[in-house]
Amino acid sequence: MSLRLSIIVPVYNVEPYLESCLQSIVTQSLSPSDYEVLVINDGSPDGCAAILDRYAQRYPQIIALHQENQGVSAARNAGLDRARGRVITFVDSDDALEPNSLHAVLERFEAADLDVLYTHIQAVDETQQPRGLDWTTGEDNVVCDGFSHPRRSFPATFYRASCVGTIRFPHGIPIGEDTVFNLKVQAFAQRVSYCSLPYYRYLLRGNSATKAVKTDKAYRGFRKALDEIVDFQKAHFLEHKEASHYFDAQLFLFLDRIAMHHLVYSLKASYFNDITRWVREHQKESLLVQLSATYPAIHRPYVVFWLIQHGLRWKQRLRTLLWRLKQYLLPRNKK
């Protein structure tokens, strides 16, 4: 039986937050018979499984799925494989929905006959206080095709199930797998819009994400993302001119992450040569030229890049040293 909506919630090691997340969903004004909540316990080592089973027994719209730990992509894909809703959305298990917001957003999606709908995201801290970040994506209630509308990784994005089709989250991309999924779905979308109604509360948590993005595993994931995007474009949009600009923008996004977190951070010749080779093979040299505005000499030979980046590092260190020296001497001068 088809439902109006499927909400997919991947769960791993979020015991302190899971109950608040689920409670924010089941207390929505949307009729329980209209939607399902597919909550996938990805082998969580804490007490998430017990919380999930308790909620599944109490609320018929919650479906508990348990699997061995395979990663967030596998968890979301398990939800997609079971989803019966005509519309699909995702909620991260440490986030929450604004009270009585779901019905209005779903109505907006259905009334405008959309393929993709981006919704408002408010970042909050552990005490649920707003913390500056306030995500919007496009103009409220303006409908564009997928290549024209701004793009954003979910959460807080609604998708027409038929537009998602067989698209799934890629494995082997630990950071940015949601970007790859989203850009593929939006490429097929004919009607994309943004809804400014308060809907989603995104929890800012202190974690090791900053360190994780600089690892070799993250680099390999970014490289795989580049290949995923190119292969997808070749398979579906090879001769589409508008698509070329769209996919180049997505490639630029991952190249920027590689430049920031790996090329400039580590200055490893192996990373630099690997990316340079990839860019040449796919004739994307223009993207490196664009990146050079932010990362000087990234489009030049490695020796030039290394020398300039080291020079910039020493320049910054000198500035910091002079500033500290000034701060040290200033009180004495006042005496």
UniProtKB/TrEMBL annotation:
Official protein name in the record: Glycosyl transferase family 2
Pfam families for the chain: Glycos_transf_2
The keyword Transferase is annotated on this UniProt entry: yes
Domain named Glycosyltransferase 2-like: residues: 6-136
Entry keywords, A to Z: Transferase
Entry's Gene Ontology molecular function annotations: hexosyltransferase activity
Coiled-coil stretches noted in the UniProt entry, renumbered to this chain: none
UniProt xrefs under CDD domains: Glyco_tranf_GTA_type
